[in-house]
Amino acid sequence: VENCPFLVLQTKGELVAGREMSVIVEFTNPLKQTLENVTLRLEGPGVLRTIRKEF
After folding, report:
1. Domain ranges of the chain
2. pLDDT at residue number 36
3. Average pLDDT, whole number, for the chain?
4. Of 7, 8, 30, 54, which sits with the fewest C-beta atoms within 10 Å of its C-beta?
5. What percentage of the chain has pLDDT greater than the value 70?
6. Among residues 40, 10, 8, which one has the least CA distance to residue 22?
7. Nearest one of 23, 28, 54 to 39, comparing CA atoms
8. What are the pLDDT digits (tens) for 1-55?
């Protein structure tokens, strides 16, 4: 898909089902403009409720 960045996801610490964990999400903006008011949404049906983080 054009202008769709490749995402790199890394987990931090021990992964335990049902417990909170930290995730590092990295990508390079392929657009020629600065991103503003960005919302990142993480979800895993049956595993993780939807989490939204605004930047």
Report:
1. 8-54
2. 93
3. 84
4. 54
5. 95
6. 10
7. 54
8. 666 788 898 988 887 877 788 889 898 988 899 999 999 888 877 777 888 999 8
